[in-house]
Amino acid sequence: MDKVCFKLGSENLYSEQMLVEYNDDPVFYICKSQTGRYYVVLCVDVEEGNYIVINSKISDVLLMLYGYITMRELYRKVDSFWQVFVGKVIDDDVVTKHNIEDIDTNVLPYEGEYYEILDKEVENYARKLENSLLNNNNKLHGESLEYIIEMSCKMLHKAVTNKKFVEDISECTEKLVDKLLNEQWNNVNEKVYDVKYDLSSRKETSLYSYIAA
Q1: Please, are residues 41 and 52 in contact by the beta-carbon 8 Å criterion?
Q2: Cα–Cα distances in Å, from 148 out to 25, 137, 145?
Q3: Cα-Cα-Cα-Cα dihedral of 22, 25, 27, 32, to 10°?
Q4: Using the 8-state DSSP alphabet, how is residue 205 labeled?
Q5: Has this prediction a pTM greater than 0.85?
Q6: Could you tell me which residues come within 8 angstroms of residue 94 by beta carbon, excluding any fewer than 6 positions away?
Q7: What are the Cα distances from residue 131, in Å, to 128, 135, 141?
Q8: Which DSSP helix (H) or strand (E) runs through 133?
Q9: Quick one: which of 96, 54, 85 has its CA closest to 71?
Q10: How far is Cα 91 from Cα 47, in angstroms, rounded to an integer?
Q11: 119-141 per-position pLDDT tens digit
Q12: Which end of the chain is more exposed for a tag (fewer CB within 10 A), N or C?
């Protein structure tokens, strides 16, 4: 079994996926407990061994990984956090729990900063998380449904505020309207031609009845 990274009461946290590293040290990563809960770990100071840990929902982690919420927004979605000063052995760690309002925002990711998936390992991890959420007993439980709704809203908002997307939609709409008008005009021309043919054949045909058909 993997080595325990942190102990938060009865929860043993194991390293699950590194997201950001600095000088080969993990500074932003995901842990999972023996009970299946997910925790996001932020290293405040490597030398001091100072860490901030939050218990996040899978749906919120996914929204952050896919860039639909900022990294800082992840901390606004929880009520509390743990501050951990690690010792030489895990039993020497100093762990304190606080209300999220008491967190030092200066140590959090910058306001407006989004996470960007840059390697296949994290991409595969995000897909694994998404599958575990959406395929949980093949049922849309509360968190799955919440994730689908929020993800859909974020995707729609991102799409309609994207200038290129709007320009592409406008161009497609214009082409579609032109196509429909041309097809309608061709239909009218064909009916007029049929009327002329009937008149030349001395058939009693109403021009209006053809166009209105």
Answers
A1: yes
A2: 34, 16, 5
A3: 150
A4: -
A5: no
A6: 84, 85, 87
A7: 5, 6, 13
A8: helix 120-134
A9: 54
A10: 19
A11: 999 999 999 998 888 776 444 45
A12: N
CA distance 111 to 113: 6
> How far is residue 172's CA from residue 3's CA, in Å, rounded to a whole number?
55
Residue 31 tokens, joined: 């842990």
- One-letter identity of residue 132: S
Q: What is the DSSP letter of 3?
A: P
Q: 112: number of CA atoms within 13 Å, CB side?
A: 0
Residue 187's pLDDT band (cuts 50, 70, 90): low
* Spatial separation of the C-alpha atoms in residues 69 and 46, rounded to whole Å: 26
Token pair belonging to 172: 């497609």
Whether residue 204 has pLDDT greater than 70:
no
User: Is 58 exposed, middle or buried (CB count within 10 Å of its CB: 0-12, 13-18, 19+)?
Assistant: buried
